[in-house]
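Good morning C.,

I know you're traveling, so I'll keep this short. The sequence:
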Amino acid sequence: MDLSVIVLISIFVVLLFLNVPIAIAIGVASFSALLVTVDFVPAAMTVAQRMAGGINSFALLAIPFFILSGMLMGQGGIAHRLIEFAKVIVGFLPGGLAFVNIISCTLFGAISGSAVAATSAIGGFMIPTMNKEGYDKSFNAAVTVSSSTTGLLIPPSNILIVYSLASGGVSIAALFVAGYLPGILVALSLMFVCAIYAKINGYPVGRIPTASEFFKKTFDAIPSLMLIVLVIGGIIGGIFTATEASVVAVLYSLILSVFVYREVKVRSLPKILVKSVETTAIVMLLIGTSTAMSWMLSYENIPQNITETLMGLSDNPLVILLTINLILLAVGVFMDMTPAVLIFTPIFLPIAVALGMSPLHFGIMMVLNLCIGLCTPPVGSVLFVGCGIAKTSIAKLIKPLMPMYLAMIVALLLVTYVPEISEFLPIYFELYQK
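The tokens, ready to paste straight into the viewer:
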């Protein structure tokens, strides 16, 4: 292994353990590794150029708009309406509140595009409600934490846009549509675990809603759910591109939150705009520094070396894909999704393609895999938010989370080895060809 690679990995790991923000850790590690081979000024210029080039993409324009749309929807009274909608669908089943939690988190995560927002908005209401109904507090938090990640697979999803960039141009529209079935599969897997929990612990059965309640709650939720229909329907119908869809999403969210639901006041819009700008800046810095590290790895032929090593381990594609999944699961434990996608896509995508996997299929597998890392210690952001809301510790949350992890891993293996789960809808709507 070259000295520059050793410097890159060592400095990055040390900075992570020192709790340095990951974007800074990636940038400093990349710059330090380049200093081993060139002087200070060329190293600084190269890293700066790679960072600027990493964010100089038309497709990335969708990210700030989807972030703004998600913030408007997050403060626009959407969470309560989705919860009430989920209650009339599954709330009357044994352990129904757990199902309500999963469906609400999935829908809100898809609408807001943020697993953390879903955990905060839905968990802030559902966890105390489930506590009052006799559900175990740690179990309640575990359900919220694990199900909040499913919305990242269901569009609009910023991480799928990032993967499109890292993969060299896989259709964003195809990725958006491809995420539906895997996202639903993960939600159903978690609901299966909750059904077993409910049976074992004798969790309460909810009241069957009347017809008038069903129609009222459904009608109240339709405007919120229409965002998903509007974005994906417009893309599939060829009315607008994914980037244009992000602008439409902002306009729709603004009208819905300010003028229809009236939960967002006009005077609070500047604060929402500033917050969305701050979040966008963080995401773009991550993308820029991760692009620089990805270039540094390619410069040192790391992807080619890893490809040769993995292909030499076995002739069986199933074994190689399992190995890739295990590596990505380990990466997700210590690294945020955005840099992980940007750094490891150039490394593993060529291997997957050589095994006959389509770039679309690999992208969905990778995102689903890294979603699991959001609810695992030590850096799982969703896990920490869930613990804070439930007022419990990570140690107490791990036990009820273990079956949830298992369910998500089973879903991951199904997505990995059954390509039709990811590819059926994009091919059906003629958005992708293998």
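Safe travels,
E.
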